[in-house]
Amino acid sequence: MSSEMDGGDSWRGVPLSEMYGSQSPWGSPEFSLVSPSFNHAVLYHVPSDGCLADDKPPKPQIGHDKWDSEHVRMPCSSHSLYPVEDSNGESHLKKRWEMIESALSKPIRNSHDLANTILSYNTKFRNTWKFRGLHKLFNEYLEEEESQYFFDVTLPEIAKLALALPKLIQSPIPLLKKHTNRSISLSQQQISCLLANAFFCTFPRRNSTKPTSEYNSYPFFNFNTYRFYEATDSDSNLEKLKCICHYFRRVVTKVPGGVVSFTRRSVPGRALPAWPRSQRPLGCLPLHVDASRTIEDADGLIQVDFANKYLGGGVLGHGCVQEEIRFVICPELMVSMLFTEVLSPNEALMIIGAERYSKYSGYGQSFRWAGPHCDGSPRDSSGRRRRALLAIDALPYSSLSREFSRDAITRELNKAWVGFSFDTDPQSERAQYPGVATGNWGCGAFGGTTQLKSLLQLMACAQARRPMAYFTFGDTKLRDEIVDMYNLLARHNVTVGQLYKYIVKFSQEKDVSQSQLNLYLEQVVKSGTSASPPPANRSAPSKRSDDVMETSITETVPATTTDLESQLENHSPDLFTEDDIDQSLLEVTIESEKKENPHTNTSTNNQSTDKNEVSTPQKRMSLFDTMQAIEGDQNPTASNTLLGNQRRNSLLNDTDASMDEDKSDPATELKKKITKKITDYFSKKSI
User: Fold this and answer.
1) Which of 276, 512, 549, 649 could form a disulfide with 590 if both were Cys (CB 3.0 to 4.6 A apart)?
2) How would residue 587 be classed by pLDDT, with cut points 50, 70 and 90?
């Protein structure tokens, strides 16, 4: 490929066809097909020929409930118990699913009924969950006709979907834990059922914000744990709720027939590239830089999610930037929050098959739902939409000196490479397709520098041999800077290893707060100055390949990386929104990845798998009190005030809405009257 590049008015570089390796976005090789194995749990039945029916969802895989620390604890499990008081004031434990079935089988006419339904099986939050956001959405923000349609037609169907859980999910869902390489495949129908239960906040042990809770190292999943239904200070939060409501309206109207795969990749430290020694030339990398389009418009490419290490970031909180927006326009992504433990520095998550349901406009506080989106992407041989989302989390930085440190540079390179080299052939020297669609990863609220981040991603793509499409979100100056720098590096045959040394030398020799990285690189590359290798911060094995990709599930990353993340722990910005937020909810800091020693018990594996074996503190507790302690916060008000000191920087929420089917069922008549009439499902009422 020529090192000099030019393009159209909005883009520069090579055409997108060189990102696919064909003239069509769908001409790239398919990803590994769905095949049940010891490390790939498939929750639906796969026919012997591997082909799924096009016109109906696959049948659930038959299995048995597992109530343990290795699997998702399901709301419908017979082990899920809840403390209640009878008419005599005596406390006893009751099967929670029976409470949920009873609550969701009653009519729900308005947002207050919905709130009371959710609280009927989450009684300890009666004084703290006020549902102000829900009330504002349905009573002020939407037209009265739209709100009525939701409660009379859509909501009863969501309730039915939630109550179908025992039928649709018959096999246990494994947790995608740290330091493991594992996959989960679910049908879109199964995902909609799980999300319906999250909407109603039915998942056990997922409401607690305590640092000792079983799921402290996982994102929140019940929708109102981080007050998703409470926020009234921002229209963007109400718009996110509209996206979710629109998704449910779509899936209860027509059951989706496809499947979605979630794959966690963990690469041991010894198998990460030796960056200073890499001989891969940067000039061989096909590069496309676009200032007008967005990542989600890049059909056929691996689309990067600028993730929080707790998947979803603030999607169920106040956040409304890149990751949160992607999760609400493609809500099937949100189910990853149910079973994906916090990502380590050497890990990434790939999601294949999630469908897009909504259009949007704006960003942050200006975000708005802009109508339905019909996803036209074809399905692969396993029944998945040919949409691949790659979740990789950047570090937040409080200063340039930290961002430009050798440890930080190496950490970000490793993180990007682990993601970009997903499903590549380590023995091949040929380009790997499809390419990667990315942008200003780790910039914005995370405090990263676009000059550095674009170069690091360029290096990681070159190392993984994947073409790169970079989207600058309207910034034509940045587009030109990236292309001009690439041309310079390509003309002088600079390798990945050389560029790594140049960047590290820049951080050691220059005052990074006063210097321009691109100017420095231009000078050093043109002068032909060689950068002597900086002193190593860790010992490397004597024999090592730059491209070895092992699959050990027990190794952790080098200590220098976790030390760095520990230093950044107390200097994290709010990762999920650009504007002022209720500080009582946002006093959270990034949990140190230094604590990721594999000997540390992060999932409370010693928790009882039987209701009769619950461990007690210093003195014997009653069974009632014990279940309260396990199920959630004993003092919700106090614990939520201390949320910032107790829990990680990943603002996720658990929210429930209990919905019931009206036995008189006005749905049919209402559908006839309203469906044809309403063209814009959500129109904002002027307030």
Assistant:
1) 649
2) very low
Q: What is the pLDDT of residues 73-124, one digit of tens each?
A: 999 999 999 998 888 888 899 999 999 999 999 999 999 999 999 999 999 9
What gap in Å lies between CA 612 and CA 118, rounded to an integer? 27
Structural tokens at position 250: 């779509």
Name the residue range of residue 247's domain.
Answer: 39-83+91-498
Please report whether residue 70 resides in a domain: yes
In 419-472, the DSSP E strands lie at 436-438, 468-471
Domain count, the chain: 1
Q: How far apart are CA 17 and CA 373, in angstroms?
A: 24
Active site residue 324: yes
**Residue 591 placed within a domain:** no
Percent of the chain predicted with pLDDT > 70? 76
Q: For this structure, is 323 an active site residue? A: yes
Of 113, 290, 305, 347, which one is the catalytic site residue?
305
- The question of whether 669 is a catalytic residue gets the answer no
- Judge contact between 116 and 200, C-beta under 8 A: no
- Express each pLDDT in 35-48 by its tens digit: 999 999 999 999 88
Residues belonging to the binding site for substrate are 308, 322, 363
Q: Which residue has the higher pLDDT, 214 or 605?
A: 214
Residue of 323, 347, 412, 654 marked catalytic: 323
**DSSP-derived pairing of the beta strands 259-266 and 287-290:** unpaired
The annotated binding site is made up of 308, 322, 363
The CATH number assigned to the domain holding 114 equals: 3.40.220.10
For the entire predicted model, the pTM comes to 0.82
Assigned domain for 423 exists: yes
On the question of a cis peptide bond just before residue 434, with omega within 30 degrees of 0, the verdict is yes
- The candidate with the shortest Cα–Cα distance to 363, out of 333, 312, 303, 319, is 319
Residue among 18, 113, 296, 324 flagged as catalytic? 324
- Nearest by Cα to 317 from 630, 520, 586: 586
